[in-house]
Amino acid sequence: MTGFVSFVSSGPGDPELLTLKAVDRLKRADAVLFDDLSSGPILDHARSGADMVAVGKRAGRPSPRQDHVSRLLVDYAQLDQRVVRLKSGDSGVFGRLEEEITALKAAGIPYEIIPGVPSANAAAAAAGIPLTRRLTARRVQYVTGHDVTGALPEDVNMAALADPGATTVVFMGKRTFPKLAARLIAAGLPPETPAILAEAVSRPDQQISRHTVSALSDRLARETGDQPALILYGPLAES
Length: 239
Fold this sequence. Notes:
Elements: E1 4-9, H1 20-28, E2 31-34, E3 51-54, H2 66-78, E4 82-87, H3 97-107, E5 111-114, H4 119-127, E6 139-144, H5 158-161, E7 166-171, H6 177-186, E8 194-199, E9 207-212, H7 213-222, E10 229-233
Parallel strand pairs: 1-4, 1-5, 2-3, 2-4, 6-7
Antiparallel strand pairs: 7-10, 8-9, 8-10
């Protein structure tokens, strides 16, 4: 069997942020299984004639089951295809990468992982801030805003998330941020802690807005919209 899977990280959406290695694998792929946020002009780099399969997941929308996506990867590779599994941001950050690797290992299929620009880094760049600063932001932490049911995870370390000396990035958290904010404030995070809502990062309709944790909670309790977003809060978000 000569099938091979490349997990290609597409970055936050701007095709100019693709790595050279990512473009190379797209140009040579027989099949591309792509996430919703990896579509659009990024797919222009794919080889003409390649099978293009949408397997993206978006909150509140019908989407393929994870076991179905993993099965597709195995099936294509067992047909001796060069397969690209195109994931948004960096594939190793909240990208369901482990489940797909597990399926490939069980089937004896070789693979590689090509890193990309994490959406958190792109969001900070779009906001014109660093993620760290000496003395006041010595740590960066990523957390998912929902579990497999779409609810706020109950097993997160709230003391760590309420650390005023950390930059915290919340992925997929618009719908659950009001509940998270209430728990953060109860754990000691000042309500006036600066926060940024970064929507459609690196795309033409990108929106970056600045708030406090309390004000952003109030806004998202009223309306979340349907744009993909990250929430950053901590000492640097006011810059």
